[in-house]
């Protein structure tokens, strides 16, 4: 066994044997404990009466909408929107690799990549999340057909399956594929909400919480508008896309008129500001670690075959925000290809974080607890215990 493999295996074993309080001593940055993240039933916009809340305990109590940096969440697992190399990249992938530290790269290196629509699990290392589930979303570049829709759904399903297989009880998802991969935000949110809804319905006892962790105001507004269609306090049956106000092949919401247009423009402006701030402050995410010994990978995935794509389905026109992101990305890729002749997919493993928060933390910072409203409190004020079934069978990690 190589020195590097020994290193990540030993650290993974050590971290997974620790209790919550000891693990907290190892976090590199701020963290948000699960009990500080409101469930949808208690979300500030939710107008459910007490009686309605009683009825909805099974669904609205099991999901949350959280806007912020996924790398700060103290949950059993966070999901990474990775590429098929699993060796890091930009966006949320870059943020997660930076915050988790180099051992995440070393373990990912041993996984031998991952196919689109599937998922693989690693330790979270320096993250407050115990595990990272890496999934590879479809590349949509603004237009989506049925195969991209199926692949995106499959990302959520595989990630949830991995969570269940490893006895994990809380997970946070970013908006997979909606950044660099250009899947339009609105249909992506529909797929995320419907897939998670259906999965929770048939796995209610297996899960404590699924958090939809959005980063951009645009996504926050979309999810806020749609959450109750799927996790309604008084209705456990999901609505169809039509009922939820979105016609297939149309990314624009059906409801609302001028007010929505004004709100959309405001969101886009806020997002543009956020993205440009990030671009200014983001450093390159060059994964420098290499395995000089080139040893054979020990992929640990228990993947099943993904559904074959269906052809000839209608496509969805990208929203203006998605188009802009795609244009920016295409521009970057053209420049890169012209300059270096690289394969864009492979090149992504060494490029800067385009849409992600800059969570690079090279130096030790004092541990602080972030309240879900982003206000900082001291670590002592938090007495949450992890919802993970500690010590229980961890199929993918007991090696
Ligand atoms: N926390 C939560 N969400 C975030 C964060 C963060 N720190 N940073 C960004 N997002 P993207 P993709 C949101 O581009 O479209 C990488 O290079 C972001 O606003 O990260 O699946 C990979 O290596 C967006 O809503 O992932 C792949 O090559 C969402 O995360 C490729 O990008 C996903 O955007 C994957 O592209």
TrEMBL record:
Please name the GO terms of the biological process aspect recorded for this protein, alphabetically: DNA damage response; peptidyl-glutamate ADP-deribosylation; purine nucleoside metabolic process
* InterPro entries found in the cross-reference section: Macro_dom
Q: Give me the stretches of Polar residues compositional bias.
A: 275-291, 347-363, 374-390
Report the leader peptide range.
none
What region holds the Macro domain? 50-231
Q: Kindly give the Pfam families that the UniProt entry links to this protein.
A: Macro
GO molecular function annotation:
ADP-ribosylglutamate hydrolase activity
The UniProt entry's sequence similarity note says: Belongs to the MacroD-type family. MacroD1/2-like subfamily.
- Please state what the protein is called: ADP-ribose glycohydrolase MACROD2 isoform X4
Its encoding gene is what? macrod2
């Amino acid at each position: 066994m190589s020195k590097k493999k020994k290193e990540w295996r030993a650290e993974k074993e050590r971290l997974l044997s620790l209790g919550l309080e000891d693990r907290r001593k190892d976090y590199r940055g701020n963290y948000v404990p699960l009990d500080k993240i409101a469930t949808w039933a208690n979300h500030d916009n939710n107008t459910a009466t007490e009686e309605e809340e009683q009825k909805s305990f099974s669904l609205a109590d099991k999901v949350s909408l959280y806007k912020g940096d996924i790398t700060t969440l103290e949950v059993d697992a966070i999901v990474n929107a990775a590429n098929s190399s699993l060796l890091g990249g930009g966006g949320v992938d870059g943020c997660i690799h930076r915050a988790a530290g180099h051992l995440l790269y070393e373990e990912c290196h041993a996984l031998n990549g991952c196919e689109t629509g599937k998922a693989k699990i690693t330790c979270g290392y320096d993250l407050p999340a115990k595990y990272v589930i890496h999934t590879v979303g479809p590349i949509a570049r603004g237009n989506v057909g049925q195969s991209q829709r199926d692949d995106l759904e499959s990302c959520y399903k595989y990630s949830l399956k991995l969570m269940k297989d490893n006895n994990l009880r809380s997970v946070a998802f970013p908006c997979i594929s909606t950044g660099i991969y250009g899947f339009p935000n609105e249909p992506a949110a529909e797929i995320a909400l419907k897939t998670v809804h259906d999965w929770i319905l048939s796995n209610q006892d297996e899960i404590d919480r699924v958090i939809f962790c959005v980063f951009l105001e645009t996504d926050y507004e979309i999810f806020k508008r749609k959450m109750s269609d799927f996790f309604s306090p008084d209705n456990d049956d999901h609505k169809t896309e039509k009922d939820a106000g979105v016609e297939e092949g149309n990314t624009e919401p059906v409801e609302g008129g001028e007010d929505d247009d004004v709100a959309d423009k405001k969101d886009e402006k806020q997002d543009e500001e956020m993205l440009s701030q990030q671009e200014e402050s983001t450093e390159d995410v060059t994964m420098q670690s290499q395995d000089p010994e080139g040893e054979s990978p020990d992929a640990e995935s228990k993947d099943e075959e993904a559904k074959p794509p269906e052809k000839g389905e209608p496509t969805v026109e990208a929203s203006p925000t998605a188009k802009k992101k795609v244009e920016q990305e295409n521009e970057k890729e053209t420049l890169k290809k012209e300059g270096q002749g690289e394969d864009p997919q492979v090149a992504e493993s060494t490029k800067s974080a385009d849409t992600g928060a800059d969570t690079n933390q090279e130096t030790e910072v004092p541990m602080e607890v972030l309240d879900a409203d982003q206000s900082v409190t001291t670590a002592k004020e938090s007495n949450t215990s992890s919802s993970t079934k500690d010590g229980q069978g961890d199929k993918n990690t007991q090696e």
